[in-house]
Amino acid sequence: QVLLVESGGGSVQAGGSLRLSCAASERIIDTNIMGWYRQAPGKQRELVANILPGGSANYADSVKGRFAISADNAKNTVYLQMNNLKPEDTAVYYCNAKRVIIPRNDNWGQGTQVTVSS
Question: What would the mean pLDDT of 67-86 be, rounded to a whole number?
Answer without folding.
Answer: 97
